[in-house]
Write a structure and sequence with these properties.
348 residues; alpha/beta; Alpha-Beta Plaits; TIM Barrel; 14 strands; binds phosphoenolpyruvate; binds manganese (II) ion
Length: 348
């Protein structure tokens, strides 16, 4: 439930609403916004006496959020969430952000080479898994903490911020020590203990849509993160399981405008996992930006034929450079532009 304040409500009147919600035994989330100031009531079990809140001075309206997800919904917060990252980079603002890098961190040489190449092409963040949730237990599972150290080294060398996955609740704190954004992968979208831990870790989270998850399920998973107090959540469309095996997944472009409509959270697109095929990544990246994605996440490998995971969907660096140029033009055509990489670190 949302208590919407009149535009001339005083801070004392807002505080009185907060105090009343707490007296009723719920938590209050004051939300000053560009369009309105509201106070969210969290944990409504259906027994809240809204008349008591409606009667308080300065209250304009009571809104009952109709969606099963609450804090994630547009009803709760009409203004878009902008996730602010170190160095002034932002996801969910005007500029479209490009995240790129290999599926997995494989060696120092590989990740540094990949980082330099994606940075030179214009990416702002480096992706790379150190903990890999592979379909087969016999496939490469990642370098673990060593992989995280190599990502931190690549950040030092290139200034790229780091996106990397945490696969279990106990691993979240370790990943958070190195990552700028913690990825929660498709296979873990509904891992409630992982979501709860990531909701308390104090770092932004990139939450990928599950292999067969509805949009509503994705938003409910995001609600776990917000309910724990983490509001820096970025959603990711990465394709869903379909009946046609000609692509790895069905890349759901409609999810982008749909999520924009239902939620204030930023949404990025992953056409690499969405299609599973190198030749389809660029057309779908272009389409995703045209559809309103706040960012794209692209697998790029210095030598895709030697990749330890997802080589067949990884772009060659020169293909990625062309992708950036094309998506930049599309972003500009819709009044957005691409975010520039942060300046190179200064060496003494
Ligand atoms: C990945 O980003 O490499 C990955 C494993 O993605 P997903 O969880 O979407 O399969
Ligand atoms: Mn991958």
């Amino acid at each position: 439930m949302l208590v919407v304040m009149r535009h001339d409500a005083s801070p004392a009147e807002v505080q009185r609403v907060v105090d009343t919600i707490e007296e009723l035994g719920y938590s209050a989330r004051p939300m000053p916004g560009a369009q309105r100031t509201a106070v969210g009531l969290v944990g409504n079990d259906g027994r809240v006496d809204s008349a008591r809140l409606a009667a308080l001075p300065g209250v304009r309206d009571i809104i009952h959020v109709t969606q099963p997800y609450k804090q994630v919904s547009r009803e709760w917060r009409p203004d878009p969430t902008v996730v602010r990252l170190p160095g002034g980079l932002a996801i969910g603002d005007t500029e479209v952000v490009v995240i790129a890098g290999p599926c997995s961190v494989e060696s120092e040489e590989q990740i540094l080479d990949a980082a330099r190449k994606v940075r030179d092409a214009g990416a702002s963040l480096l992706r790379g898994g150190a903990f890999k949730p592979r379909t087969s237990p016999y496939s490469f599972q990642g370098l673990g903490e060593e992989g995280l150290r190599l990502l931190a080294l690549a950040r030092e060398e290139t200034g790229l911020l780091i996106v990397t996955e945490a696969v279990d609740p106990d691993g979240v704190d370790l990943v958070a020590e190195y990552a700028d954004i913690i990825q929660i992968g498709a296979r873990n979208m509904q891992n409630a203990s992982l979501l709860k831990r990531a909701g308390r870790v104090g770092k932004p989270v990139l939450l990928k849509r599950g292999l067969a998850a509805t949009i509503s399920e994705l938003l409910l998973s995001a609600e776990y993160l917000l309910a724990e107090g983490n509001h820096d959540v970025i959603l990711c469309e990465r394709g869903i399981r379909g009946f046609d095996s000609s692509t790895r997944n069905v890349f759901d472009l409609t999810a982008i405008p749909m999520i924009k409509d239902l939620s204030h959270l930023p949404i990025v697109a992953d056409p690499s996992h969405g299609t599973g095929r190198r030749g389809m990544v660029t057309p779908m990246a272009r389409a995703a930006v045209a559809a309103g994605a706040d960012g794209i996440i692209i697998e790029v490998h210095p030598q895709p034929d030697r990749a330890l995971s997802d080589g067949e969907q990884s772009l060659y660096p020169e293909q990625f450079a062309a992708l950036i140029n094309e998506t930049r033009m599309i972003a500009e055509a819709i009044g957005r532009g691409l975010a520039a990489p942060l300046p190179l670190p200064v060496r003494s």
